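User: I'm putting together notes for a lab meeting next week and I want to include a structural view of one of the chains we've been expressing. I don't have a solved structure, so I'd like a prediction I can at least talk through. The sequence is below, exactly as it appears in our construct file.
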Amino acid sequence: MSRKARPDETRLWALVAATVRPLPGRRVVVEKNVEPEPPSPTSSLKPYAPAAHQTQKRPVPQSPPGEIEPGRKRRLTRERDHLEFRLDLHGFNQDAAKAALHRFLLNAQADGARAVLVITGKGYQGEGVLRRFAPDWLADPALRGVIAGVSEAHRRHGGEGALYVALKRRG
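Assistant: Thanks for the context. Below is the predicted structure for the 171-residue chain, given as structure tokens.
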């Protein structure tokens, strides 16, 4: 069963309906004989504006680089293939970490490195921001010509808080 709307609910609906643009071929139904009350200057209702920290959305993930081939990952884990460079992102904020990661990978490839270690850290209770965003940063189209594959590091190299990044040869 449905109940009849109270006058204050009807007024509120009229205010909402007045702000909506209906889809083509549709119309907004508003009860007749109900005048929306104009908001008073002392009204505590203000238009909603999200806080600055809420407007920042997680980047749309691109096609992530593939996993490092199993044989190569095993050689990295057992340290038969050398990790030429390491980047530790502890203490960086998101923007600085992303910029440092891009610079690091481009410089490592220019120096002829074939595999590097990126340490993001696990974060508080395993919910680290850098750890969560690093795969998206590595999927950036600007790094497509640099990265051959990415895999989670072995426990001795940082485990869940670090990544092996295989680099392509300079072309």
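A couple of points you could mention at the meeting. Helices lie at 7-18, 52-55, 70-77, 94-110, 129-138. The chain is about 30% helix and 10% strand.

User: Perfect, that's what I needed.
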